[in-house]
Each structure stands twice: as structure tokens, then as C-alpha cells.
Amino acid sequence: MNNHPLLSISNPVKFLKPPIPYDISQNTSAINTKQRRQSKTLVLKSNKRSTTSLTSSVSVVRRRNTNGGGETTPFRKVGRDDRGQTVLLCALGYWIQGSRCFPWLALNFHMAHCLSLKPSTLQLVQYTASLPMVAKPLYGVLSDVLYIGGARRVPYISIGVLLQSLAWGSLAIFPGAREVLPSLMALVLLSNLGASITEVAKDALVAEYGLRYQINGLQSYALMASAVGGILGNLLGGYCLLKTPPRILFLAFTALLSLQLIVSLSSKEESVDLPRIREVTPEISAVLGIVKKQFLDLMGIVQADEVSQPITWIVASIAMVPLLSGSVFCYQTQVLNLDPSVIGMSKVIGQLMLLCLTVVYDRYWKTLPMRPLIHIVQLLYAFSLLFDYILVKQINLAFGISNTAFVLCFSSVAEILAQFKILPFSVLLANMCPGGCEGSITSFLASTLCLSSVVSAFAGVGMANMIGITSKNYTNLPAGILIQSLAALVPLWFIHYVPMSEPGFEKEGKRAMSKRGRRNRRVGRVIGQEVFAYRRERET
């Protein structure tokens, strides 16, 4: 398809005085037909949203046909009912994703008290169960290129929810599944496998929907829904553990997953107005070839500095800090003898803080320079880790603050800041996603974050064993917390890897043109293949 002459760089543009009237009466029909064809080409090109070119060799361009072949159905206008169905599917999914703390709180107490696991073993079990989430790029690539029933997002959500229902339902129904550590680990791994598939599909759905309609910051609303789920999950989980055994919580969460499964099965991909494939040509039916090509495209995008440097910083800022969450949890429950309701309520307050931070970010901080914002958040995170030091050394009692009140107010601050720190990076990469790679990019970020958390947890277990932190001896726990806080300051040395601003948040609308600009703007018309342009002279 030939480019329009106005868009061609090689086309010479002559700036002359106002042109002499040109007689084109003989070729009016031919020229008008050509101009209409060229204007139609311009409209089609303007509708294709192009993102910033990442490197000279990687050009990120929005494409309608994301499969490189095959025919997709034309886009249609989304009605109010379709938007409501989309909101219900995504909001319920993120709300239940945040509510996963409801069964996990019961599972942690079950492993600590019923199975009598050591702090280091408990932490190893918690983060080893996250290993299926490291493979999220594979799920993202499959979601991008492998269609199931003509759709590529909603079916994967249904599959992930089904796997979670099977895992938590088995833990609730079969006593041997939750009393033996190997079987418990297998079911927890199955649950996280389903959760990771569901999260990848939902994140890709939100990113693709935002790019399709040029809506920036949808990830903020997703985090809000997840925070609301975390608030209710921790609140109900803490109080239910006082009166009911953990298996009842597992069964209740299975019922929630069944509701999500019904909603996802009743949802259709057309309601989200995404391209739906009709037929696949034999050349692209080889799934392995498509997956390989998608991985190569993903690697090409990730290797660009605009993508690799922010990911490197956020991954390093998490992996460099050795986690002591298992030791602190056992200290609170075994030494301080805090009730499950107190632990759950502290998580509720933390999720409320996360919700407030997300709302403020979406309303006011989204347009701020990204690097100073991340710098401040990282500093606050490093200092908030010292709250555990104050609790272990019982400094709070010297100021008349009880252990219960201190845990309620300050125990979850560091965890919430660590979660909030990820939000700007999620929005940044979602705005840079090229067409057809939404699932690959978002899943790659989630996978690297999960892997960095696993590395951080294993480093914390190694440090706890080195300095002698056990379930009967917490003497060196304050020293480990100080090492944590100092390690959180190290990423500030290479904060320049974080970009100053996020793309896509410029003020919309046309900029007001100055008088001089209006006077000197170029006005021209196209005749044939030549461009006659002139500067409008100042009228006297």
C-alpha cells in the first residue's frame, strides 16, 4: 500500500508563495477518486495505534490481526450490557484474587500449629508453592497465540479457576491431603498453578482492553478490587479461625471459586470487543512454531533498554532483601501469643492502606515523575522494616503501646509498601505492550517478580540458619531485621534505571496554538503526487 504523499519523508516539499490557481477541470474525477483513496488510507493508518519504538531494531506497532494470519471478526461497538459483563468478569476475578489470603491465613496457622513446622520450613513451603508462578511467561505466550474455542483470554480464566477449585476442595474434603506435608504441597502447587494462569489471562485482558480504548491506568482499579478482596478475606479469616477449623475456610473459598467459574463460563470474548479468530490457515496451525516466534518477539522487546532497565531495578530491589516473614510470624504467634484475629486484622488495616494508596496514586500521583516517587517509596519501605525490630526488642512497651496495638497498626506497613511499589511498573509496561503481546509482557513481569520473591525468601532462610534463628531461639532476630533494612537501601544506588516518567499520561486534547504559530502554520493542498505548500502571510 503506497503511503500518502504528506506522510512520505522522501517526498520533496516546496515552500512557495500562494500558488496560482490551477486548472484541473479535465482530471477532476480521477484526482478526486485518488484523493478519496488516499484519505481513506490516512484514516486507516491513524486508527492503528503505534507505541514508542523501543529500539532501532524493535518497532512496537499495534496490529489488528495479532496472529499473523487467519481472519478475525471486525470490531464492533461495545454496549452498556457488554461493559457490565466485562466489569463483572474482571472485578470478581481480582476480588477473589485478593481474597486468596482467606484460605492462606488458615493454611499458615494449620502448618504452624497442627503440623508444627519450624519457621524456616514454613517459609520454604510458602515460597516453594509459588514456583508455578515463575512459569507465567509460558502461560502468557500460550494465551497470546493459542485460541481455545476461538477465544484466548476467558477460556484460560476458566481453566485456572477450575484447577484452584480442585485443589482447595481436596484440602477441605480429604483429611489425609492436609495432614501429610507432601500431599499438601502438591495441592498447594496445583492451586498456585491455576491462580497463575488466571492472573495472566486477567492481566492480559485488562492490558489489551486499555490499549484498545486508550484507557490509561486500569491496573490501578484492578489493584483496588484486589485490595478490597484482601480486606474482607483477612477480616473474615482472622475471626473464623477462632471458631472454625481451617477446612471450613478451605470449603468456603471453594464455593467462591465455583461462583467465579460460573461467571467465566457464561462470559464471551465478544463482550470485551477483542478480536475473535474464525479460521486458522495450515501455515500457522503448528503451535510450537507460533510459540517459538512469540518467545522470540518477547525476548526482542524485553532486551530493549526502556523495558529491561525498569524490570532489572524492581526485580533487584525485591531479591536483594532477605525475607524473614516466617520467623516474624512464628514469633508473633508463639512468643507473643497473638490471636489469629489480631493477625488477620493487621492484614485488613494493611489492605486498607493499600487501597488508599492506590486511589491516591490513580487520582494524583499518576502524573508525577516516576523516579522520585519510587525513590521515596523505597526509602519508606527500608525504614518500615524497622517496625519488626521495635516489636522484637519490645521498645513499643516503653512508650505505652501494647503488642496487639502495635501489630495492628504497623505490622503490615512494609508488606503494603512492597506491593504498592510494583504498581507504577505494571502501569508502565502495560502502556508499552505491543499488540498481540499483552499476555506475554504482563506475565513476564509477574514471573520475574515471583522469582525475585522466591530468591528473597530462600536468602532469608539461609540468613536465619546462619545467625541461628530457630523456633526456640529468637535472640538474633533483631540483627536479621537490621540486615533487611540495610539491604533495602542498596537499590537506591542504581535508581537511575527507573525512568523519569511513564508514557501515556500526557494531557489529552489539542494544545492551544499561539498567535505566531497560527500565523506561521503551513497550509497546502495535494494535486496528483506533488505537494504545494506555503506559509500564510501576515494579513495587514
UniProtKB/TrEMBL annotation:
InterPro entries: BT1, FBT. The chain crosses the membrane at residues 221-241, 248-266, 311-330, 342-361, 373-392, 404-423, 443-467, 479-498. It is a multi-pass membrane protein. GO terms for cellular component: membrane. It holds the Pfam family BT1. It is found in: Membrane. Keywords: Membrane, Transmembrane, Transmembrane helix, Transport. NCBIfam families: fbt. This is Folate-biopterin transporter. It comes from Arabidopsis thaliana x Arabidopsis arenosa. The lineage of its organism: Eukaryota, Viridiplantae, Streptophyta, Embryophyta, Tracheophyta.
